[in-house]
Design a protein that fits this description.
5 strands; alpha/beta; 10 helices; globular; 58% helix
Length: 230
């Protein structure tokens, strides 16, 4: 604190004139203050990040299945962001899309997410498209550990081909061909990859038992993030 007060005094003094740029006091503060600030803010962010774990990934990548098991394993609580929104609105996600539109849903999603980041020791499963918003991505990166559950288009197709509750995979009431379905999956996945790839942890969930995936994830969280377990 003393250093910051001194720096504030220096910034208001004559020493910041060009002719004093090599003054020993100026050189000292220019070197020390930024490093100290980064260290302090980094420590604060790391502590905050240990309190929340966000699970992102394509539809049917295992977020809602792995989430509660992971939470139970480390003694944390679990929330599904889509379920929270459904409870808040008394509507299914597909109904919100149909009746209010995607823009309304995305705004509601961001508002709900911003309310959840004050929680402590929660695993939060996200919707497949939550991460496409820069605002959402920044909220998660600043306040939690972001885990990307990766799945291939073929694996996603096998898990989703009979599902009719995903707005992004509806085809105007008709049955799509396998090629149409895969093309839609690839299009959405390619659009989201640049966001998914900014996750702190990436785990492929293709052809892996849920228990194996959870055990591996817990090891990473303990080793690399020193999470506090209950």
């Amino acid at each position: 604190m003393v250093l910051f007060l001194c720096w504030e005094s220096v910034t208001r003094s004559e020493l910041l004139k060009p002719e004093f740029s090599f003054h020993p006091l100026i050189i000292f503060f220019r070197r020390i203050i930024p490093k100290l600030f980064l260290k302090l803010t980094s420590n604060k962010i790391n502590v905050m990040k240990k309190n929340l774990i966000f699970l992102t990934g394509f539809m049917a990548s295992g977020k809602s299945t792995i989430g509660p098991i992971l939470a139970n394993t480390i003694g944390w609580n679990f929330l599904d962001l889509d379920k929270v929104i459904e409870e808040k609105t008394s509507k299914k996600i597909v109904e919100i899309f149909r009746e209010d539109g995607e823009k309304y849903f995305r705004e509601l999603e961001t508002k709900t997410l911003s309310e959840l980041i004050s929680l402590v020791k929660y695993v939060i499963s996200l919707g497949g498209g939550t991460i496409e918003s820069e605002e959402n991505l920044n909220l998660m990166k600043m306040n939690g550990i972001l885990v990307y559950l990766e799945t291939s288009p073929e694996a996603a197709y096998r898990r989703l081909r009979f599902k009719r509750d995903r707005p992004a995979l509806l085809f105007d009431g008709r049955e799509p061909t396998k090629e149409e379905f895969l093309n839609r999956i690839n299009s959405i996945l390619n659009r989201r990859l640049k966001y998914y790839n900014q996750a702190d942890v990436k785990i492929n969930t293709d052809n892996k038992p849920v228990g194996v995936t959870v055990d591996y994830l817990v090891k990473i969280l303990r080793k690399d993030f020193k999470i506090e377990e209950n």
